[in-house]
């Protein structure tokens, strides 16, 4: 059994298993939370400091947001598709789309967010960098 465990551990180390990318400069404040009809609903205010990012991630449900301050740059896992959202813009993120949110500006960026997730699932799931050069 020890040999099998050692071989599995060695294969994982040598295979270059990618690890999740951590967020930088992100704080969140929960405003409300409830459950209904098999979904969890969470409203949060998320702040990303200048130069910060959410790290690569995806959501199991749909996310609805409004940029209330600053500029949000979202990049999808193909590393080329980016969306720039300014103050007052709305954002809808569909389930299971891997992406990163970045604040490339000089002031904090603030989002008001409603998460609509299947009951019992996390708000987001970390993902490894898909190979983009900026993270």
From TrEMBL:
Pfam families: Cupin_2. Residues 1-20 form the signal peptide. Keywords: Signal. Residues 46-112 form the Cupin type-2 domain. It comes from the Bacteria. InterPro entries: Cupin_2 (IPR013096), RmlC-like_jellyroll (IPR014710), RmlC_Cupin_sf (IPR011051). This is Cupin type-2 domain-containing protein.
